[in-house]
Amino acid sequence: MSESTTTATLEISRETAPTPLAQLSMQQAINRALGEILESDDRALIFGEDVGVLGGVFRVTDGLQQRFGANRVFDTPLAESGILGTAIGLAMAGFHPIPEVQFDGFAYPAVNQIITQLARMNYRSRGRLPMQVTLRVPSFGGIRAPEHHGESLESLFAHVPGLKVVAPANPQQAYHLLKHAVSMPDPVIFMEPKARYWNKAGVNLTENVAGDDDRASLEGSVIARSGKHATLIAWGAMVSRCLQVAELAAEDGIELEVLDLRWLKPIDEAGLAASVARTRRAIVVHEGPHTAGLGAEVAALVSQSCFDTLRAPVERVTGFDVPYPSGDLEDEYIPNIDRILFGVQRVLEYRRG
Amino acid sequence: MAPRALDTLPPRPADAAAPADDQLRDLYRMLSNVRQLDTAAVAWQRQGLIPGYAPMLGQEAAQVGAGAAVDITRDFVFPTYREMGVAYTLGVNMVEYMSTHKAIWHGGLYDSVATHFAPFQAVVGGSVLHAVGWAHGQTLNGQTINSSVAAGLGVGLAFLGDGASSQGDVHEAMNFAAILQAPVVFFVQNNGWAISVPTERQVAGGSVAARAAGYGMPAVRVDGNDVLAVRDATHRAVAHARAGLGPVVVEAMTYRRGPHSTSDDPGRYRTLDDEKIDGGEDPLSRFRAVLLAQGTAHAAFFAEADAQAQQHADDIRDGVVALSSRPGSEMFDFVFQETTPTLGAQARQWREESEHV
After folding, report:
1. How far is A49 from chain B (nearest CA, A)?
2. Among the options A149, A180, A229, A286, which is catalytic?
3. B165 burial level (CB within 10 Å; 0-12, 13-18, 19+)
4. Is the CB of residue A327 less than 8 Å away from at least one CB of chain B?
5. Which residues form the Dehydrogenase E1 component domain (chain B) (predicted)?
6. Under 8 Å between Cβ of A276 and A225
């Protein structure tokens, strides 16, 4: 088949039928996005522990070194501060590094470089040394992993001036948000919910989340499910759990809206306000510890924007103020369907005075 | 203090020819410029012109010698907070450099991209890895643009001290550099003191250069108070890295003759006698004696050079006096390349409530 015939066929099919969705897991969607990034941006580099020959412990970088060579995709020594510090120097030399730390808890040794250098170099240099660095962090719990292989660092990163933080909830978002993040001239912490790596879903490879090519639709939050009685606010792996909760609640006639926050910095204040203004009740759900968790920030924003219309205090269903427990106790720690439903019930039954 | 000799850097045919007489005199002029400005900056702090300063008295030969070996059109320097002499030698605008000590802007007002001099770095050992990353970028550029290998690679110069050598990042940087064979020179000024803790309580084994062997890197340990020896060692190290042969450690043995900073009180951890004995001969007097003995310069030259250096320091002082605060809006302007709605709202609120507009 000649090239022109192929193009013509594609054009016809796009006019006559919706663009077919590729069925991809999040791990495959990210892999595909990384390949396209390396193809289109010759300054993009991927490096970290075991990302080259092995293709990453989650196989997210599978095949990329074979395709793009060991200059573009390379293994580093086992030192996370070294990975981040090297990424900063490469960004100073005009590259667009996409480093990986293998697990969320392995970001701790790199926190000094992330906070004192990555987040501040643009500021310190008065805008002369932009840090176009996207740090990929397999994040959150749910896979029965050893200690420090499941942590929720979003409030730590969101608290640092100079960083942007995003967590995709499904393959479609992961594919588009990663490509968007890498194109941004500021450092982005890209938190991949590792519990969702293997779940397949449709990915529209040509159009982004909102179904158009508008870059703005890759920013802010999205409504994952519409409802009118309360808004569940979540990100990462908790979005699919909240969708399950909404499904169950619907059987009892309770229509829950699920707001996928996506960007944890900046937080979409307008999107939050718009949803809760409709539902007048909000429950924020996250895996990280309760105290000073990102849910506190969300609750404060919602309370401020919707104080007059809120029918109940914003409820937080979160992890506890305990170290992330081992696999056997994981289900006791991560908000589960029952705990989220209890939170919903508390909000719905709240009476003033 | 005679440093123990250590030189594992292979000699190369391209090693620098002996500097010409006018280059020698220029080196002295720069040493004098740096000495006068450093002395002046301490005085500015006492006068209340600047809130603080980190003097480099005694390290002039190490810094001017290192700076003189750098090709700033293609190399990139990653300084600490005590590299005024390197900055001066490389032509960084010294008013813009000193702005950080006037608390105008943390990183300094100079343009790091134009000067190839990274922002003023307060984190001890913080920028050493950046030099490795930047240098690896030169290797990657060289591999795609073949001509730059033939012409030689740009070299990243990481400045650090004996205290910084204790930081884990410095180990990671040296290991990464050696694994990547990055064109980096780790220029260590071993000035004897990390604030109040002497090198012997800081550097196990007694030498940072000796550690290079463990990474498979060549190293040179040099008398850091001999400007020509430092210049030569750094030049050889840079040439080695530029040729694509990998990283090098240069350890310049010098002495911090002043306090750690204008807030420090060395009397609490060393005596004046200690300073006299351990500091050795002043690096400027030493070089002056060499030039006099060679007949390269005479008393009139030194008088004229010192007077000119004083004039330069006075001019820089005028510039520092004239430096005004940056507008508060810059707090918000440089956080991101693309600001966020949240930060934009904070900036607007600051403007309304603090600038009353």
Report:
1. 12
2. A149
3. buried
4. no
5. 29-312
6. no
Pick the residue from chain B with its C-alpha nearest to A70: B140
In a domain, B172, yes or no: yes
Q: A97 to chain B nearest CA, in Å?
A: 10
pLDDT in tens, chain B (357 residues): 445 689 999 876 655 678 899 999 999 999 999 999 999 999 999 999 999 999 999 999 999 999 999 999 999 999 999 999 999 999 999 999 999 999 999 999 999 999 999 999 999 999 999 999 999 999 999 875 545 566 799 999 999 999 999 999 999 999 999 999 999 999 999 999 999 999 999 999 999 999 999 999 999 999 999 999 999 999 999 999 999 999 999 999 999 999 999 999 999 999 999 999 999 999 999 999 999 999 999 999 999 999 999 999 999 999 999 999 999 999 999 999 999 999 999 999 999 998 766
Q: Range of B346's domain?
A: 328-357
B51 and B118 housed in the same domain:
yes
Which ranges in A51-118 belong to alpha helices (H)?
64-68, 80-92, 111-113
In a domain, B1, yes or no: no
User: From A93, which residue of chain B is nearest by alpha-carbon distance?
Assistant: B134
Distance, in Å, from the CA atom of A259 to the CA atom of A282, rounded to the nearest integer, reads 10
Q: How far apart are the first and last CA of chain A?
A: 74
Residues on chain B touching A123 (C-beta within 8 angstroms): 107, 334-335
**Quick check: B137 and A90 CB within 8 A?**
yes
The angle formed by the CA atoms of residues A204, A205 and A211, to the nearest 5 degrees, is: 50
> Which residues on chain A are in Cβ contact (under 8 Å) with B135?
89
Nearest to A86 among B132, B141, B335 (CB): B132
Beta strand ranges found along B91-179 (DSSP E): 156-161
Q: Are residues B211 and B258 in the same domain?
A: yes
- Tell me whether residue A159 is one of the annotated catalytic residues: no
As for how many domains chain B has, the answer is 2
Structural domains in chain A, CATH included, are 19-214 (3.40.50.970), 222-349 (3.40.50.920)
Select the residue from A43, A86, A297 to test the B interface by mutation, using most B Cβ atoms within 10 A: A86
Instruction: Establish how many alpha carbons lie within 13 A of residue A185's alpha carbon, considering only the half-sphere containing its beta carbon.
Output: 15
Establish if B233 belongs to a structural domain: yes
- Answer whether residue B47 is part of any domain: yes
Tell me the pTM: 0.94
How many residue contacts between A and B have a Cβ separation below 8 Å? Answer: 141
Interchain proximity B136–A86, CB inside 8 Å: yes
CATH number at residue B226: 3.40.50.970
Cα separation, A149 vs A144, in Å, equals 9
Question: B238 with B339, same domain?
Answer: no
For chain A positions 214-273, those within 8 Å of chain B (CB to CB) are 265-267, 269-270
Q: What secondary structure does DSSP assign to B260-276, as a single string?
A: SSTT--GGGT--HHHHH
CA–CA min distance B116, chain A (Å): 10
Helices (H), chain A: 3-16, 26-40, 64-68, 80-92, 111-113, 121-124, 154-158, 171-183, 237-251, 269-279, 294-306, 327-333, 337-349
Same-domain status, B80 and B23 = yes
Is residue B96 located within the same domain as residue B205? Answer: yes
Residue A350, number of CB atoms within 10 A of its CB: 13
